[in-house]
Each structure stands twice: as structure tokens, then as C-alpha cells.
Amino acid sequence: MGSLVSDYPFVAALAAMVALGVVFGAVLGFASIRFRAEGNPIADQINAILPQTQCGQCGHPGCRPYAEAIAAGEAINKCPPGGEAGIQALADLLDVEPIPLDAEHGEESVKSTAFIIEDDCIGCTKCIQACPVDAIVGAAKQMHTVIVDECTGCDLCVDPCPVDCIEMRPVVTTLATWHWDLPRADVRPLIIATDAERVSTGERAA
Amino acid sequence: MRRPHDFHGGIYPPERKSLSNTRPLRRATIPDQLVIPLSQHIGAPAKAIVAPGEDVLGGQRLTDLAGLPVHAPTSGTIVAIEDRVIPHASGMSAPCIVIDCDGQDRWLDLEPWPDYRERDPAAVVARLHEAGIAGLGGAGFPTFRKLSSARPGQIRTLIINGTECEPYITADDILMRERARELVLGIEILAWLCEPKEILLGVEDNKPDAVRALESALTEIQTPIELVVFPTKYPSGGEKQLIEILTGQQVPTGGLPADIGILCQNVGTAVAVHDSVLLGRPLVSRITTVTGEAVTEPGNFEVLLGTPMKQLLADAGYREAPRQRLIMGGPMMGVTISSTECPVIKTTNCLLVPSAKELPANASPQACIRCGLCAEACPATLLPQQLYWYARAQDQDQLEAHQLFDCIECGACSYVCPSHIPLVQYYRASKAAIIEQRADTAKSDRARERFEARQERLEQAAAEKEAKRAARKRAAAAKALDAGGDDPIKAAIERAQARKAAQETSPASAGDAAREKIQRIEARLEKARAKLAADDGSDATITAALTKAVETTEKKLTTARAELDAANDPKEQTP
What we know:
A: mainly alpha; 3-methyladenine DNA Glycosylase II, Chain A, domain 3; disordered C terminus; B: 575 residues; elongated
């Protein structure tokens, strides 16, 4: 055996490499079956960042398909409801440069929800079929209404309405949702006191 | 004597308490109109059970028991239930009950329970709910809820907070001086309800008169209440700080004092408990300090809830001035109120109207020099400087990792900051942003679930439809097979072809078709002639076109007649 190896060093090396390759190939093959990841984990993470409005402004039928498209290499700037913050989060996750929102797919607008003018509703159920999250209740020839808490503001119910009785109303701040804003001086770093704008309405140590 | 512990940090701002605590307690004037917000604390607002036009008596409940109820502070008539501006940092309006007072102050017959010890503790807690008792020290948390959320035997220590550490405010000081007896009786009710092993009453050493009054009340009434006097430091009146001072224990992050067997109540709350149980009187008034250099007679007032701040300020000798700041609460944690029309509510412990010199507007914030004074002052042992940087960067993960939610917003860090950075405002805004984002995430998760459920439903419906279609197709094929044993499509094509052939060969039907055609052409010819007759001949081209149309139609008619003759001639039909 020893003499065989020393007589044919090249063949022996080749045989050794092949043997190693077979062994490792078997291990990897086993691992890829045994530890198979269900679904696409990156698409899941991207989907968690997307706002889930299901509005289709990105050109995909819902957030999940767009998440899968991003995972497959599509641009990250096609989601207007997610806005700049969403693009930033996606850029952080995928470790790419954040790019400005693609205006072709719409602009970032104030949060709003659909509102059905109930006096005008004829009960055609077209909006119910259009709603991607089942946030409209009603039946044929019965008045429909929007479940405001479930409405994502995707806009998809507005066009199908034959009597134009759906409008998007901006979400108003109530006492329950009002909150403090970051201090205004945050707009730019203040290095020199005389450089700063005078703030006359500030409150000491409030 | 118990030796008080100390807590980390804290500051010693000028106290300015002698402005208001040298005058005895006064009664505020009953105003002509009271404005009572339906919701005076966090949580769902109560629903009104009275209607405009109704007469109410003092002590009458105005709202249902879904939330914490409010009561009529005096007799009068409900004039409206509408949105009025309320004392809130946002300056927003909220639903309020407006009462025109009749000045007679007629009351309901009250039902005192001097024998409460013979009753069911749950009934006493229900009475605190019905009387609208809320924590009168800080956020106005419903007292009944605090008492009923603790498991039986969970509370080992009952702590009564008479600290009042914030500068300027002396409402609790006056309360302890003037109503020490009621306070002790109220604490006994609370102790009877939660059965603690020890009862501690914590008071700062800057209130010697209050301490004397309490000592004499405690010798008069034999109770196990232990009075603990400790050195003055801001913010020792914070719930967690007071617990550490009195017991040396720390409330765990994100936990409640009940988790370590402690229940905290304010002295004002204890007196309100006394009034509601022993006198049957609901919470319709409170003691409020009116102070600051812009009033000539600062002091403490027993004021009806719903009294416009304007009225209370007038009682203290305040003349309205332009650009005057009005702060509800103290100079450290208070909020600026946008309008003096705002009513006094259950949590209004102080109205501060400072002169411009007394509390100057904030200096412009400068850059953080990383001096670290804020970390030394923080009573919650946080790193305010790190939080500041993360708040500016809006790095919410790091903010949470640095325990932003342990911040009690006491303002000690802002007070010591040499660069005048409004640190607390950064923390408040960041907390709100994090809470908002949590809500958004929860909503988008729900939207995703609903979307996926809908997709699944649609797919299922489509699959069912497809299955039904396939079943129908199979059934039709089987039927055709049973009938003739032939392919149904082929059979249908054959049937159609046979029909067509029959039409073509039938002479009668061919003649009918030709006759129909002639009729159609005749009608058209009629129309064309009529048009030609109606033409006035003003335009030569139109006249020419109409004439040509008549000629063409006549020619077509001749051809059609010839066809009909051919169809009727059997010789032509079968050559």
C-alpha cells in the first residue's frame, strides 16, 4: 500500500481529493435536507419592515410579493407608505445605500383612512371586493362602512366605487394620540450660542 | 425610629414654598359656571348620564361607572355637554359637562359609613370607585383600581406620600396641617382594605408644622402608622424614590410597586378616601396652591373641581397680563396651560404664575459638552447623556436598551445641564415615538394577518370553483356517453352542420329571405326619396349625393327582385 502511494503520488493525491470531496458532499447534502429553512427568511424580514398597507403602489399585488421581489434584487424605493424611514430601515437590513423614494410609484402622504359617505352608498359591494384587508363591512344593497381601526389607507376602494362615495380622510390627532415632538433646536446642531435662533416659548425643565 | 435610606442623584432647587404656605387655607369662590371634563385621567372617558336642562344637586353622579365617574360639585343646571378646552399640554378640547351654579349649594343626602369595618371590603372599594377617587398626587390613577389589582395578602407595606418635593407647591403641606385627623382616619381605611404589615407616612423635613400636626393626631388616635421624616431633596416624592427612601428596596424595571409588596397613596387621596367613606362625600373639591410672583395673595384654596382657573387666579389677586405663563403643577414637572379658561381638575395640585424674572424663558440650548452632571443628578440611575444622543439620532433600539422607560421625567437632568439642553423634552418625544411605533407595528401585523387570511380565502374559493367546473364537465361527458356513445362536441358540430345544410337547400326559406331583403330595401328607398323631397337645394353637393343614393337603392331593389324570381324558379334551383 505504502509503496503504491509512493509509486503513484499523483494518482494517490487525486484519489484522496476525490474521497474527501465525496465525504464532504455527503455531509453538505445531508445538512441541506435536514436543516432546510422554511420559506425565505430574508423576505420575511423585509416583509416585517414594509408597512402592510397592501396598496400595490410598488407594482406588486401586496407587501409580501414586493418583499420577495426585494429579496430577489428589486429596488427598495418603491414603497410610498413606508416613506424615507422605511427605505432607511430596508437599507440598514440589506446593507445597501438608501436611495430617495421613486416618484413614479407615488409620494409619501399624510396617514389617512377611507371613509364611506353612507347616505350615498348604493350597496354595490365593489369596495368590499377591492379591500385587501377585509376592512369594509356590508352586503349587497345594504349600506357599507369602513372599520377604521383595520383600514390601512391603501386607497384601493376609492376607484371601484361607482357613485364616488368613498373619500380618504387624514387621521386626526386626538387627545389619546397626541404627543410631544422633539425640541425644535434639533433641526441643526447648535455650536455657538449667538448663532442660535431665539426660542421665546421654551419651557424651563418642563 | 426608622433610619431613612437615600437614592441616587437628586437636586436641591430653591424651594420657594414660603410664598404660599404662610397663609391659612381659604375657600375659593363658587363660580357662576363649572366646566367638568368627562375624562380626567388616562383611559376611556366616562359617559354622561345627565342631559342638558337637567337640574343637579351637589354630590350627584354625572357619569356612568365605565370609567372613573365625576360628580356635580354644587347644585345647578346642566347647560351643555360639549367640547371645551381642558388643562392638557396639547391645548386640545375634550367633552365637558357645563353646569350653571344656582348659588344655593343644595346637596344630596349623604350616606356616611362610620361602621365601614363591619362591611365587605369589596363594597368599600366599590364606594371609592363610585365616589370618583383618583390619585391626587400625580397622574390621577383611579384609586379603586390600584387597590383591587393587588392580590389579597400581596401588600406588605402601605406607604403614604406626604413628600411634596417639588418647589412652590404646598397643597399637601396645608392639608396635613389642617386635616391631620382626617388624614390618619383615611389611612386607617386604606390599611383596613389592603391589610399591610407596616404603614409608613413619609414627610420631608421642610414641613415642620405639618410634622407637628401629624404627631399630635397620631398620639390622639392610636394607630400603627409610622411617621418617617427625611431630608429634603428633589425628587424624593417620586413613587419609586420614596419607596427606596423608606424601605431601601427598588421597584424592578417595568414593574409596579405591588410586585415588591408595596402600595403607595398620596396624602390628598387618603383624605378623599376618608371623606367618601366616613362622610359619604364624593370627590368634588381639592386643595390647590396658587403661587408665583404674578399673584399678590398666593396661598392654598379649597376649590371645587371644574372652577375656571381664571376665577381661582382672581381669588389669589392675579391681574391678567399679556404673555403671562400659566403652569399647572410645579416648575419642574408642570405643563404650560394655553388658556386661563381651563377648569381645575382632580390632578390640579398647583397653579404657578411666575413673573418673567422668576422663571425666565429657556436659554438657547448649546452643544452637549459631555460633563456628566446629568448622570449624577438622575434619580433613576440612567445615562441621560447617552439617551440624549440616541434620542437625537432616533435610535429607538438603543433608547430602549438604555431603559428610557425608567425615566420619571423629573427634570433633574435638564436642571443641572450647563448647556441648557431640554433633555426631558427629548425623552418625552422619544417615549411617544416608541409607543407610536409599537402601535404601528401591531397594526401592520394585524393588517398582514388579515391580508394573508383573505388571500387564503380567495385561493380556496377559486379552487372550489375550479373543482365544481371540473365536476360539471365530467358529468356532461358521462351523460353524453350514456346517450349516444359519441363525443358530445363532435355530435354538437354535426347537429349544427345539418341545420345549416337544411336551411340552404330549403327553397321556401330562400324565397322568404329574398322577400325580407326586398322589404328592407324598399323601406330604405322610401327614406331616401323623402330626404330628397325635403332638400331645399341650397347646397348642390348635398342634392347630388341624395339623388345618387336614391338611384343606388333603386338599382339594389331591381337586383333583389331578380334574385327572388330565380329562387322561385325550380329549374334554376336544380341544374
